[in-house]
Predict the 3D structure of the following.
Amino acid sequence: MQRSQLSCSPFIQVANLSDEHADPINCLSFSHDGCLLASGGDDGKLVVWDPAERKPKCRVIFENSVDILLWHPIYPGSLIVGLSNGDLQQLSGFGSLRDYEQVEIRLGGKQAIHCVAYDDTTRCLAVGMGSRVYVTRECQRNVYAGIITLPEPLSPEVLQGPDRVHLNAKKVVAIDVSFHKDGKNLIVSYVSHGIVCWDTSTHGRLWEISLPVATPTIAGAVLFAPVRLLAVYNSVSGVDMYDIAYHGKQRPRKTYPLDERPHSKHRLPVQFINYGAQLFCGTTNGNVRIWDVASANVFQDLHHDSASPTRLYTAVVKQNKSYIATGSIGSGGRPQIKVWAANLGERLCASARFNIH
């Protein structure tokens, strides 16, 4: 297998964080400065870690599992938390193990939260909850107002005849929401209904991308706005790259394959790292794969020593190093969080390396 050559050293494990979660870990998120790492699990526990010290800084116990975490891009140390029962909380002030402030964000719905995004230009928060996508604005810290609900998407054009009827019966689920063009657009990736770009002012549909018949579902997605690329984990063969400048039915510009077909359809988020030069995704065999975006060659596989799926949720660049945190979502054994680091050399950017046309 050909390996890419980047101005980045291989990732090595630098920390193993354990003895906090009793059940599978659902989500991980580094703070923007990389000084804190938040984890949430099926045990209803939120843990805010000091990864440098390898110990917890704060613990919060909820009655429902913690499914979504997002560090606030405007207020450092503020964390948006989504629970399995539809509760959405904004927490801050993690001063000690049991010292924190908590405010509920009310959206008028109570279903499972699948994804969240925050735009620091418009101060808008987008939430994929159940079959709906809500958008609300933070008019002042911890105070949200002006809730709108986006229309449900139309059925994609990839299927015809009886297959279209079958697709129409599938539940609408937004697996990823990404703001674009300074918050004027919201790109929503749906599990079974393709990709739709919405106007956040008029709530109208601007464009959509229908997926190929061979890979009609999405189990994870991420937008790299500088070069208009959307990476989609297709739950069949790996990660497909789409250019959002082109709409309608399209083939992926590039595909980043996995060695074996996924064992399950777990949600496995993908993420760009190192200024868009690399792309990584968890797998259902317990490993983490990193690709070079430009060549689609494998850069490195991170082994999690687990036969269960590995959710890969977060990465951050700090002090000339790139950090990745991974966690297993399978049952059996004590859940563990691994932190990996790589030294960065010359600053890389996918826009200069990846010909998407």
About this structure: Confidence is low (pLDDT under 50) at residues 1-6, 158-167.
